[in-house]
Amino acid sequence: MTDVLSRLGLRRMQPRDLAERHRVATPLELLFDLVFVVAVSQASQNLHHLISEDHVGQGVLAYLMVFFAIWWAWMNFTWFASAFDTDDWLYRLLTIVQMAGVLVLAAGIHAAMVEFDFLVVTWGYVIMRLAMVAQWLRAAASDRAARSTALRFAIGIALVQVLWVARLYLLDGSAAFWTFFVLVAAELAVPVWAESGGRTPWHPHHIAERFGLFTLLLLGESLLASANAMFDALAEGEHVPELLGLSASGLAVTAGIWWLYFAREQHGRLGSLTSGFRFGYLHYVIFAAAGAVSAGVEVEIDEITGHTEVSHAIAGLALTLPIALFALSAWAILLRPSVARWTSAAVVAGAVLIGLAGLLPAGEYVVAAVLLAAMVIVIEVDASRADRPESARPEV
């Protein structure tokens, strides 16, 4: 069997070593992430336009629905690659097929969010997921120890994709809407069922790095939105102080979000199956909030320049609520176990105040940036205190 694979230019898809040193993201994984940025950008832009046109509820709901497809397909590939990346031509080809699915999904995001027409998005998603079925079947054929788990993944994913396609053509109206969430639950259940047959050997350092890199790409959207504020100020020559203030605040917010996310090492918290599921699943909130920050900045630009139909409060909340949600979720998922109680209280209080800052009559983005900076200072003080030996700490 090995000789046949060798002649075809293939390798046996055996599990990677959990103790492998210097396990880092590959160039293929980085390219994979860049394709997903296209889909995230489309979702963020459509969220921005829907909020600015006073379709807030529709925009938020549609964004969260579309973002599930983006996040879930990305995360499933990331977890698989951490365990079974062979980097031969077939593995690369199947990964590129998934990239094609991402682009198809991105092409359908506008229709999905504006008209709730999920035809193109669903087919793009199914293309990505069926490529993963092929990867899992290859893993099942290559490794006896991982066969049960790999087959469970392949069967579970394939069955749910059949249901997604059936939903497109057999259901409409409220039935199609509510079954979306039923199938989301089914997707989330597949890894839990599959891993119960044996844990896949994903690498904690690799997983932590991959999630961090994707967070950086999402923050790039916020930087672009901040740059747009500056460009608009220079091009139009109107509302210059407000737009420059928003641009500076947007940069400070992006830096603060980055600081919060990377304030502590995360690989040590990925030692068990339960912690892995918690880390991966709850990142939906972190990623979705980070992606929405750029939409909030763009809505603020529209509000400053008079190109929106929503009130000042709605425009402000469009920016401050995603920042607050990111801060709360980053604290709950990444920071809470490693910071003091007073630090946790300060971070939670700061996040609540950031959210409420959207209701201020003016300068809400400046207040949000200042509060986020204060939150970062508190976390750094906590870190310096934790690093000091007990004898050097002042008595309290």
Describe this structure in words.
This protein is mostly helical. It has two domains: 26-195, no CATH class; 204-388, I/LWEQ domain (Up-down Bundle). It contains 14 helices and no strands. The protein has helices spanning 2-7, 27-52, 56-84, 89-107, 109-115, 119-142, 147-170, 173-195, 204-236, 240-261, 273-305, 312-335, 341-357, 364-387.
Alpha-carbon distance between the two ends: 68 Å
Q: Give the tally of structural domains.
A: 2
Helix content: over 70%
Report the top-level CATH class of the largest domain: Mainly Alpha
| Residue share in β-strands | under 5%
How do the SSEs run, as a string of H and E?
HHHHHHHHHHHHHH
Keywords: Membrane, Transmembrane, Transmembrane helix
Transmembrane segments: 21-40, 60-81, 93-112, 118-137, 149-169, 175-193, 213-231, 243-261, 281-301, 313-335, 365-383
Protein name: Low temperature requirement protein LtrA
Organism: Microbacterium pygmaeum
Topology (SSEs and partners):
Layout lengths: L1 H6 L19 H26 L3 H29 L4 H19 L1 H7 L3 H24 L4 H24 L2 H23 L8 H33 L3 H22 L11 H33 L6 H24 L5 H17 L6 H24 L9
Helix pairs in contact: 2-3, 2-4, 2-5, 2-9, 2-11, 3-5, 3-6, 3-11, 4-6, 6-7, 7-8, 9-10, 9-11, 10-11, 10-12, 10-14, 11-12, 12-13, 12-14, 13-14
Keywords: Membrane, Transmembrane, Transmembrane helix
Organism: Microbacterium pygmaeum
Protein name: Low temperature requirement protein LtrA
